[in-house]
Amino acid sequence: MHREFQRTIKEFIQLEGVGLHNGIKVNLTLSPAEVNSGIVFKRTDVDNTKNLIEASYKNVSSPVLCTKIKNSHGVSVSTIEHLMAAFYGEGVDNILVEVDAPEIPIMDGSAFDFVEAIRSVGTEKQNYLRKFIKVLKKVEVKDGPKYISIEPLAKDLIIDFEVVYKNALIRTRRKEFKLSNGNLNSIYNSRTFCLYEDIDQIKSQGLAKGGSLENAIVVKENEILNEDGLRSRDEFVDHKILDCLGDLMLLGHRVFGHIKTSQGGHQLTNTLLEKFFSDKSNWEFDSFEEKNDKESKYSRPIAVNA
Question: Is 266 a known active-site residue?
């Protein structure tokens, strides 16, 4: 984990692809940004006075099948979760994301291309300490058999994720991911997936127009339709952890906490974040520095995304 100082990328990055849900070709540019500027999306195809969208859980407008954020002018960008997960894992705090369409390109359905691009230019330390969200007490959200919770954990992040499917191939799978272990490759490389029998329903909602076997795993009964099969036996649950990591980055700061979830997804994670921050007794800011001063500026709760 990149610990004490904020970081940005060293150089511009340019990528292109298609949107998973709208099928539109999109150009993506990642630019270095100043300290404390956070992650900001800019729609270059929209009026300059209305085209900035802060990457915040407060701006999430539609967490169905992807994470979509929208500003006060109604300008939005969707399917940001894989890119946000790359920022989380690669230690990027401040960056400008410019996009000329309303959806981030899906690439191969994972975060691999984003991570490789970031690593190819490298990141640089900025002269300002990073803050972390420290969980002070357990907060839980339930929705029938689905649930998600977050509870205290010292100086680390654990995501304990369980997927439950009736499909005989996916079945019930559970994995505990610990960020301090350092190896995120299986998480980064995991692709989005769907059941073959759900495709018509998804498309009837005007979604998955850019979906194909090139950017998603498709499961039909007990068969993987993709020619090369799975990248790892845990790819299904790994991708759910990837999505969760990306949604957590919408806090504006990384988290010291233990997340446990079963049958979770974008909507449940966002509901948890809203509930968690609705009560200031649930959290405080922290850092990796051990301070004896109890009145340290990193130990007092202040506004999120400040």
Answer: yes
